[in-house]
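Review form for a predicted model. The reviewer records the input and the model, then writes brief findings.
Reviewer: anonymous (R2)
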Amino acid sequence: MNSIERFTEDVFSVEVDEEAGRLSVEFESGYSKETKLLLDSLILGLQGIEEEYMEYIDVIFEEV
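Model under review:
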């Protein structure tokens, strides 16, 4: 989220539930191509972590 905030002008809000291990992001009015690329990179990284530590982590994506 830091990269999106720093490198784009997209407006979003973040909710973190550390106890549940959940991160929720909501964009106010859609997002740019740059943000899409950064999100895809984040997803790729999280999936790599999940593969490496699948015994300890589940990565679940929900689009609403």
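Findings: The first strand starts at residue 12 and ends at 17.
Further findings: The chain has a mean pLDDT of 93.
Recommendation: see findings above.
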